[in-house]
Amino acid sequence: MSHEDPYAWLEDVEGEQQLDWVRALNSEQAAVLAGTPEFAAMKARTLGILDSEEKIPDVSKIGDFYYNFWRDAGHERGLWRRTTLASYRTAEPEWETVLDLDALNEAEGENWVWHGASVLRGDEEEYRLAIIDLSRGGADADVSREFDLQTRTFVEGGFFRPESKGGTSWIDADTLFVFTDFGEGTMTPSGYPRIVKRWRRGTPLEAAETVYEGAEQDMYIAAYHDSTPGFERDFVSRSIAFYNSELYLLGAGDELTRIDVPNSAEPDIKREWLTVELREEWTPADVTYPAGALLAIRLEEFLAGSRDLQVLYTPTETSSLASATWTRSHLVLNLLEDVKNRLEVLTPTAHGTFERSAFVGAAQVGTVAVGAVDSRLSDAVWLYATDFLSPTTLSIAEIGSAPEPLKSMPVFFDPTGLVAEQHFVISDDGTRVPYFLIHREDLAFDGTAPTLLYGYGGFEISLTPTYSGVLGSAWLEQGGVYALANIRGGGEYGPRWHQLALKENRHRAYEDMAAVAKDLVERGITSSAHLGVQGGSNGGLLTGNMLTQYPDLFGAVVIQVPLLDMKRYSHLLAGASWMAEYGDPDDPAQWEYIQHFSPYHLFDADADYPPVLFTTSTRDDRVHPGHARKMAAQMIAAGKDVTYYENIEGGHGGAATNGQQAHMQTLAYRFLAERLT
């Protein structure tokens, strides 16, 4: 490709000419696909699953109530509602509506999408006041509005943060930390806040006093208040880049005390304890701790200069720490052993050590997730247990007691005759890479089964077995095979697994994915003509590289909300924040390797490529829709088989409502079904 980009004009997100181009493309192959009876039937079933009133209503404990955000057929934008634990335990809880987003949108003529709420704790107004974040069309940028949970109305003349990327944190009933767009020069190159201020009730936002100002090239600056009784304190968080951050205690007179751990580490402070999860090896006082380890020390001792750290967890070649969750008086470790979960409980003693015990009654299934019910005041946890073929269950458990099952996902598809397996394949450099495989027990192994390979491989994110009614009904039940690849770049084996595919080593993630694809063919499960690959965001970059570097391996490719132009990515929306992952394309030495995984530049108009589906969102203000637009445009100009669909709203998730989500998911599955069978 020449230095002149003929499709650069498509980077104007909401220009009329550009949107005309989008609408025209939407009305072509994607519209034909959506016009079939098979599409209508699958979309209806998918929407029925997404709208099902039998889904698990996830709840958050706030005071005496348990809050849930809910969408169904009658509430497209959703309800924020609450109930009691006693009622939640019943088959049909009694819900009290706190905020109806559909009614709010109708009243205000907006298209608000729920972004969450933060509730004031630790004040005379405890559990009464909330800040609600709302986004237009699902973008990352949102507004913050004060809400009264007793009257269930927005507070007249209350706190209001105008639309921007950023957020707030309660300090007390009359004070917030606020980090947002304060005007020219106050946002980072990544498009996030660079300044955090203290904002007092009754004063304009412009009068808020600066607490901390980051450097011009920082990624994200924020502050938050810890309201734990007896341990109230304030923190400033400075994110310089991904995997490079600093945490400060904010004292009297806004004095900053840095928590002096490596910038790549993840410190966490709970009550009297500081825990440190390492991404890199650390030698603070003649003792070397390995990457992936979890360390602990009393905060007071650490601030006084002690580095006598306790090792709570050390990784192995096959295991890593998935999460560490505090309750009021325990720390629950969630460990991954070859991508399978195991729980341990650590309990601080009066002597400052930790006693280790097994988690009583933890489910032995594919994936277990743990969340504190109320870490300030309680030792209860939520337990989610799930795998590919068993509906997700939710239990509540007091540490040391057997879990109490509360809710279960309905059976959304027939698992009869399906089996789930784990396999390992050797990548190009000899690395052992796991993947999961779901197929019919009576599979012929004759290379004809339509097979979908899914992956991500970035940002230390792990992919684990999860029940999906949509995947089951739209793909597995129709005879399709599904493979989930745990390639390098992810977090399945801790930070080392991620770091093995950073920057100049990015190719390893793509080699891993290709190795899994080849293994599926060699096992006789499928063949290239019947093998599809799918991924979104960083996974869209992954599938873009499968398309351009390994076109002979696949019969169809689905690329969702992707990065594709790696020369321009750092200049588009939040792209600058990902240079720690991919490198800086403006540095000639780094562009030398980045260009080799930039699908937009690897495309060869004379080469043969499998059919490709691109999906993105106009309202995605994280990964610029220009990536998908430009790649589709150059492929169409070269006469390639391209199906393109851009949702006019939806944000980085691609969809703002269940109806939009059903449409997008059905597009992918019907595209794959038509091209691979």
Structure description:
This protein is of the alpha+beta class. It folds into four domains: 111-258, 7 Propeller (Methylamine Dehydrogenase, Chain H), CATH 2.130.10; 260-314, no CATH class; 315-410; 412-676, Rossmann fold. It has an eight-stranded mixed β-sheet, sandwiched between helices. Strands 5, 6, 7, 8 and 9 form a five-stranded antiparallel β-sheet that branches. Strands 1-2-3-4 form a four-stranded antiparallel β-sheet. Helix 3 packs antiparallel against helix 7. The radius of gyration is 25 Å and the shape is globular. The two termini are 34 Å apart. This is Prolyl endopeptidase. Its EC number is 3.4.21.26. GO terms for molecular function: oligopeptidase activity; serine-type endopeptidase activity.
Strand-helix topology:
Layout: H1 16-26, H2 29-34, H3 37-50, E1 60-62, E2 65-72, E3 75-83, H4 85-88, E4 96-100, H5 101-108, E5 112-119, E6 129-136, E7 142-148, E8 153-154, E9 160-164, E10 167-172, E11 175-179, E12 195-200, E13 209-213, E14 220-226, E15 233-241, E16 244-250, E17 256-258, E18 266-270, E19 273-277, E20 294-298, H6 299-303, E21 310-313, E22 319-326, E23 331-337, E24 340-348, E25 354-358, E26 367-372, E27 380-386, E28 393-398, E29 404-408, E30 418-426, E31 432-440, E32 451-454, H7 469-476, E33 481-485, H8 495-499, H9 507-522, E34 531-536, H10 538-549, E35 556-560, H11 579-582, H12 588-594, H13 599-602, E36 612-617, H14 626-637, E37 642-647, H15 658-676
Parallel strand pairs: 32-33, 32-34, 34-35, 35-36, 36-37
Antiparallel strand pairs: 1-2, 2-3, 3-4, 5-6, 6-7, 7-8, 7-9, 10-11, 11-12, 12-13, 14-15, 15-16, 16-17, 18-19, 19-20, 20-21, 22-23, 23-24, 24-25, 26-27, 27-28, 28-29, 30-31, 31-33
Helix pairs in contact: 3-7, 3-15
